[in-house]
Amino acid sequence: MANAIWIINRVRDCSNIDASIVVNLYNSLVELAPEDMDGLRVLFRKDLGVYIRHYENPYIAAAIAYIDQRVCSLRKSTRMREYIGVLSELLTQEKQRSEVYLHPESLNPAKNALNLQFLVREVDQIYQMAGAMLEAGDDRDGLRIIYSLLKRFDGSDTLQTLQRKFISSAESDILQGCPQRPTSADSRNSDFTLTAVDYFDGKLDTYKATIHELFQGDSNYIAALEKAFARVINSLAAKRKLATRPSRLAAEYCNLVLAKNKLQLTGPGDDTKQAVAYLCKAMQIVHAYNDKDEFFAYYKRFLAHRLLNDASISTDLEEAAISDIYITKSANQTLNPEVMAIEKSDIQIMLAEVSMSNEYSCKFAQQYPGLGFGMDVKILAHDQWAGTFKSHGAHLAFPPVLTMACNLYAQFYKQTHKGRTLQWQWAISRATVQLYFPESTSRFAESGYTIVVNVYQLVILELLTDSLAFKNATALTHSQIRFATSMSIERVEQELNVMAKHGILQYVAGGTKVQINNKFNSEHSQIDISQSMATQEKDEVENSILAHRISYLRADIALIMKKHKRMMYSELFMRV
User: Fold this and answer.
1) Which stretches does DSSP call E strand in 71-185?
2) Distance between CA atoms of 357 and 378, rounded to whole angstroms?
3) Which of 59, 62, 36, 58 is nearest to 47 (CA)?
4) For residues 210 and 143, what is the distance between their CA atoms, to the nearest angstrom?
């Protein structure tokens, strides 16, 4: 037996020697199984008595002596950082040898004996070193070594304390670095949205990579990090810095990805792949945020804007996006699966209605080719659009050519859908017009400007251009415009102020009259002054979310009461 231990020691010294004889020897000892020899029985492992006494114990003693010989001087000199580095390497090598030259049931006793000899007394000091390294952040190798040593104490309080310290540090770092929304008027909302979502995604990925590098990808660390990230996302401090709900931030980011001319997705044929990759960043926030129905409400609002204004990159991307969102929400949902299915179905219906409306517009253009302008009408027949915009059916005094076009489309639609009545929603309608300004000096003076306006602005521009014809211009008062267009005075003032702000119109006569600005100049040939569609304001979206929650809650209560005819109020409260 002494010769066997001598061979193992030669292996430890990296000697090139055939140690297969040692494996054959310990297998022979294991097969003895001395059940009839009370003096050789070992508690819990009685069938390995001979093997343990004559091979395992000498093997472990030799391993302790071998390691102690190489780290003794380091331990005595208090060079703790160097000590744990050498010790970690020796213990790792010994673990690999044990898996070859020891019986499987000997692995834990060997590990425990080595831990007792070299780690138990220093574990507190090792933990203190780990804390200092976490704060300094300048010794990643040291952290990796310490974790591998502490990992030998599976489930130990020290290992869990290290985990809590690391996660607490990460949580504090993510929250402190959370972007602060600028208050300056020059700042672009889209730029901040991109910065904020990229920040959270980058931080989460960085700490996950750190866990894989330093802590062997420990699943407990990953789970704890995700919980810490969720606490940050749902914290009041983060909402204050972002100056918005994280759910709205994620929805805005998705809109930037899926809307035209927002994010430049480069590479032909790669749009879907890139868009899904971008969406995954926002989904990190959605996954962590508690009230996912808020995100869905905001997402639905932005989706309606894209669909109704032909601002979506493609229908395929929209369908891929909602599938990705649905899967993410289902993985960590706060609503039941039936509600999730309804949400996905609602968006699919919205996409289908827009697709069908586009087909109607093509048929209408083919049937009436002589209008002189294009007309794209969206037919919103289902309730899924309710809550995504304000419904306005107020009367407007359209120019004759536009009135004729609307009447023609209504007649065209009724040919295939008898009994239906169209209610025009002017508040969400837009038009693209080509304007020429005689005294403009920009490089677009001859080609003109392509300007996107809402319907109210369109009616005002038609009134001004037809009556003034740019030459011999005389201004109109607010009252004159109101009388000619049938708009409210508030609407007239609002739209005039927008067009005057962009320089298309100008106030004269002390601000009492308005006229076309013939000297209009711009660095851009295409300008959008429609101010987007009249979607809900922030408080209206939140009211819509609250209304949906109440309806879901009532449905759950009704379902519970049907299953249980009689029950205490406290029990009903707990079930809900």
Assistant:
1) none
2) 5
3) 36
4) 11
List the one residue out of 525, 505, 530 whose CA is nearest residue 450: 525
d(CA 399, CA 124): 85
Cross-strand bridge partners of residue 155: none
Token duo for residue 225: 């990090």
Q: How far apart are CA 330 and CA 189, in angstroms?
A: 30
| 211: its two tokens | 């866990």
Give residue 264's pLDDT band: very low, low, confident or very high (50, 70, 90): low
Name the phi and psi angles at 452, rounded to 5.
-95, 125
Q: Report whether pLDDT(185) > 70.
A: no
> What distance in Å separates the CA atoms of residue 143 and residue 149, rounded to the nearest whole number?
10
Q: Which residues contact 349 (CB under 8 A, 6 or more apart)?
A: 382, 384
For residue 547, how many other CB atoms are within 10 A of its CB? 11
Residue 331: CB partners within 8 Å, gap ≥ 6? Answer: 287
- The C-alpha atoms of residue 110 and residue 92 are separated, in whole angstroms, by 12
Cβ-count burial 330-354 (b if 16+ within 10 Å, e if not): eeeeebeeebbeebbebbeebbebb
Please state whether beta strands 526-528 and 430-435 pair in parallel, antiparallel, or not at all (unpaired).
Answer: unpaired
Say whether pTM exceeds 0.85. no
Question: Strand 430-435 vs strand 449-454: parallel, antiparallel, or unpaired?
Answer: antiparallel
Read off the pLDDT band of 267 (50, 70, 90): very low
Pairing of strands 449-454, 526-528: parallel
The mean-pLDDT minimum among 90-99, 139-148, 172-181 falls in 139-148
Q: In what order do the strands lie in the sheet with 476-477?
A: 476-477, 513-516, 505-508
Burial of 135 (0-12, 13-18, 19+ CB in 10 A): exposed
Q: Does residue 326 have a pLDDT over 80?
A: no
Mean pLDDT for the chain? Answer: 79
In which region does residue 477 sit, left (phi positive, over 0), alpha (psi from -120 to 50) or beta (all else)? beta
In the predicted structure, residue 269 carries a pLDDT above the cut 80: no
Measured in residues, the chain has a length of 576
Between the two ends of the chain, the Cα-to-Cα distance in Å is: 69
566: helix, coil or strand? coil
